[in-house]
Structure formats: C-alpha cells, structure tokens
Amino acid sequence: MARKLQIVLWHIPGKIEKVEAVVVYTAAQIKHRITIKTLIAWMQQLLDTSVVRPTAISSLKDSQKAAVIQIIWISPYDQLDSTGRIASLPEHAGTDDLSLQFLTASEDGTVAFWNLKLNEKWRMYKKKEPSPREKGKAKRPEALTKSVSPFKILDRVFKPCYILLVQHPNESRNVVITTVTVYVPQFQKKRLDVGPPSPDVTVRRYFENIVEKPDCVMQPKIHVGTVEGDFGCVTWEGYDFTTDLAVNTEKCRWCWFKRIHDGPVTHTVRSRENRTWLVTIGGKIFAIWQEDLGVPLFWNKSDIGFTAVSWGSFRPTILILTRLDGTVELWDFMVKTEEPCVLQSLSGRIITGIYTHELPLTPQCVGFCDFNGILRMFLAPATFFETDSACIEWMTNFIQRQVKRVKNCREWLEKWLETNYKEIERKERLSKEAEKRKRQEEERVTVPKIVQVESLVEPAKKSLKRWETIQESRKKWEARELKHMQRVLLEKKGLKKDVLEKQREPILKLGREKKRKKQKLRQTLKMQENIFEHTKSLFFPKHQPETRLTVSVPPITEKFDEPITVEDTILEEEMMEMQRIDPNEEIICHFMEIQAKVLANLQKPPFEYSFNWKNIFKNKKTLRVTMDTELRKLNKFKKKVVPVTPKY
C-alpha cells in the first residue's frame, strides 16, 4: 500500500531466512572480499540481505486516483471474475488452483479488486526466450536467477480486475472512504513445533494453516465508513456479459446508510465470536452495529476523540479503545455499560493503533502503536484470558435485546407516522413540491432546446461596416489587454484573486448596505405627503361641525293661571344641553386655526442658511492669533514671578 496511489507487492519466501542466516567465509574469501570492496568503493551496494526490496509496483495509469487507506485479502475459496460476479471454488480444489485476490479502498471513493493469479494474460509480459544466436553465450549462474520472483512480470503493468464506485446516496459525487470491512473467514492454525509451555512471548513458535473450505460464501456486501461520519453497507450485482473495457466499473447501491459519528469513521472491526457484530469509532463516539441493521445497537460519547479500537481476543464482552490523549479505555459490558471499567495512560500523546495477536498464545500480548512510530507490546492481565460459554451467551443475549429494542422502536415509529395526519400532510406537501421541482427542471431543459431551434431559424445578421468592425475589435483587444495586465500584476505581487475577493467582500457589503439605506430613504421621502396625512389623521381626527337641533316650539300664550309642571322643567333643561357646544371640539378648532396661521407665516419668509468658508476661516484665524498673543503675555509674566520661601 502506498500514499502515491500505487500498490506495492513484496514476495518474501526465503528472504527472512537470508536475513537471519549467518554466512561463514574462509580466510581467502574474506581477503578477496576486502580487495574487491576497496576497488569498487565508488559503487552503490545493490544487494543487501538485511533489506527486502519490493517485487512489483502497480501501473500508475490504471491505479486508483487517491491514497489507498486499506487492503483486505479475499478468501482463497472465493473468486471474483472480470464481470463482478463472485464464484465459489470446489472443496477439493488444489492449493495451486486457489485464488489470490485482494481488494483496496481509496480516498477517491473507489474499491478495486486485484488478482495475483499469473494467468495467460500476464504471461505476455514475460521476457522472450533468447534467439538461437544468443544461445551460445554464457548463462547466468543459478544463484543469480533463483531469487527472481515469478511476480516480477507484474512490475509497472499490474492493474485491477474490477472497480466499484461508492457514491453519496443523496448526491452525484463519490464519498471519501476512510475505512472498509468485509467478512473473510480465517483458516484454523496448527502448531508444528512441540515444546514446553513458556511465558516468554519472544520465543518463536511455528504454526501451519489447515486449508479447508469454510462453511460460508463471500457475499457482495462491503461496509464503508466515510470522512463525513457516515457508515453504511453497499452492494453490487455485476454484469451478465463481458464488456470491451480494460477494467469494468460499476456503481454501488446502498443497502442502508446512517450518520451517527461526529468525525471521520477511522476504524471498523469485526468480532471474532460473531462475524455480524461490528464496532466503529469516529470523532468522540464509538458504536456497536449488527451488519444487517442500519441503526447502532449501542453507542457512547466521550469528552476526548478516539483513535483506535479492538475487540478482546478471548472474551467477546471486552472492548479496547484508545484516545487522543494517550489513554486506553477498557470496556467490559458484562460488568457495566455506562462507563469504562479501566482507564490507563500509556502515552502523553496519540496512540494510533491497537493490535491483538491472532494466534492463541499464552500469555496473550497486545501491541499499541505510538505517535512516533514505536510499537510497544504489553502482556494482558490473566483475568482477560478467562472465557466460558456463559460469557459468550451473555453477550449474545445483550446484542439480541438491543436488536429487539431497535426493531420495536422502528415499528412504533412507522405506525405513528402512518397514523399521524400532520406527518402525512407534510409528506404529501413534500411530494408535491418534488413533482413541481421536477417539472420546472424538465421545462428548464426543454426551453434551451426550443431557443436553440429558433436561433437556427433566425435570419443572418447584417454585416457590419469596416469602421464598426475595427472599433469592436479594438474594444475586445483593450478588454483582453486589461485582463492580461491585471493577471500579470497579481502574479508579480504574489496575490491571489480569491483572497482579494474575500478581503473585498466586507467593503462591498458596506457599499450594498449604504445603497440600500439610500434607496429606503428615497422611498420615505417620496411618501412624506402620505406619512404626514396619516399622522395628522391619527392624532387629529376630522372635525365634524356641530349639528344643532332646533325644536319648534309653538308660541306660548300667557296663561298665568296654569301651573308649571315637572315635565316642563325637564324639557327645558334638555333643550339647553342640546344648544351647548362640546369644549373638546372647541379646543381642536382653535388649534387648527392657529396652526394654519403659523404655517402661512413660515411659508412667507423661507429660511436660508448661509455659510461662507472664507469668512469663517478668517474670523477663526484672527481669534487664534489673539489667543496666542494673550498666552505669550501670560507665560512671560509667570517667568518673572519668583517664588519666595518663607522664613521661620
């Protein structure tokens, strides 16, 4: 794996033995070696047994376009062909017939499958046999040709056999992949050497793979984590026929997609006890998933970001996490699930990886990779080696309870959404808006086509006169020269257009605000008459003239002999009240008369403000000279006055 977009292949059979082998030379050989080294001291040493050099590098043209972040080997009994279909090899297949394939995930949003099987396609790159004329030449010694790897023919021509594109489910762009995981069954290991048990983990032990076909077949599913904190499962179908392309490419389909992390998903690890249990870390959150369920079964958030994660080797209830501050968290869900059981600081800075040994060693060791590239090995406590069926059963029941809880919540939510009429109305409104948006997009696409057809029918433009053509060409040339001068000035001063635009944005914003305020003020001035009338009608309602009721009273004949009754008195009082004027209306009328007189007087002699800068400058300059003269006199007087010390 390389950061320069290419795959690097090492073929190491027999290389480790050469590094560890101790070569014994005779006295004559030592003498000749010293003599040769003195003669060729200017040459670079080409062959060094302590360095294992790469065998082949993939083709730069056909490799992925960004950094490769993960490599996963595919099961030898599963094979992916050039059409993207997975085939299972028979159980009785020989060791030479097994597949040699692996997949790589890149930050450009692609997953590539590679095949190391040396078939006829790669044989064409092998060097040709020497011609009959060259057969008479001396052959190379066997020692020089024996160490050449058969995979050397893949150097610079190695390319993937199938590529998957992982696009965002809601957008037409590739996601930035940060981690992937695929279930690959491991072979059982059998120890070859027989010796007494030793607590020293540095003692070398020899194991051998038991090559047997596993019970399960690889499924076309890959769990993917992205830089945006998303985690999901993608699948592909493959092609029914072979295409003429050099490398077949297919867009993946998301089975489920969920965002739960507050940072890039950096690690995804499967449990050894159950292949469907996954744990992911991203940002400050770690989550436990089941591969066929698109919701986390359990998640927890820390105050500090996580950097690595690993399941326990012997007990499935144990989870090991490392943080940015160099602290290791040890979770045992059988003890408690709300906080870690053990917190231990191993380093003052970032721990970049946790590596548990795959072999059943006693005692078990755990490796922690530090920020400076040091791998430190620790012996795990003896309590973590204790495992029994009860522990596995408890973890299985715990996961099943969480799955049941998640499914019940999902069913309840679906039923609630079906019965909630507000949510139904919202969905209908959203669907209508989507249809409307789709219709507008279709119209937007069809309109340019219509315009293009109409433009073809338009008559040809009239030819310009010679002087008009020259003038138009001169304007275009001046505009082009102006742009060129601006670009040259920016390059000479080391400025960037984007940076200048960002620096200019606040000034443009102030200009837009100023323009908006001026426009608003202009509109206000246009409406001043309406505002005045509205204010006047608000504070001073219209004066309605008093309606005086006149009551016709018949002439009273003097009849002194008739007495005055109470009814006559009440009638007279009511007539007097009707003849009176309301005092509030009288005040308003008086104010309106005075206001009209004052406004008329103000309009007769208009106020003119006269300002003459020369007169103001002359007057103030004279005042300044006068003040300076007085200040000079005062300073002279202070200098003449001598303080007298009192005598006691």
From TrEMBL:
Q: What GO molecular function annotation could you give as one example from this UniProt entry?
A: dynein light chain binding
- Record InterPro entries: Dynein_IC, WD40_repeat_dom_sf
Which ranges form a coiled coil? 417-444
UniProt keyword terms in alphabetical order: Coiled coil, Cytoplasm, Repeat, WD repeat
Q: Which GO terms describe its cellular component?
A: inner dynein arm
Could you mention a single GO BP entry for this protein?
A: inner dynein arm assembly
Which PANTHER family does this chain map to?
A: DYNEIN AXONEMAL INTERMEDIATE CHAIN 3 (PTHR12442:SF5), DYNEIN INTERMEDIATE CHAIN (PTHR12442)
Give the protein name, as stated in the record: WD repeat-containing protein 63
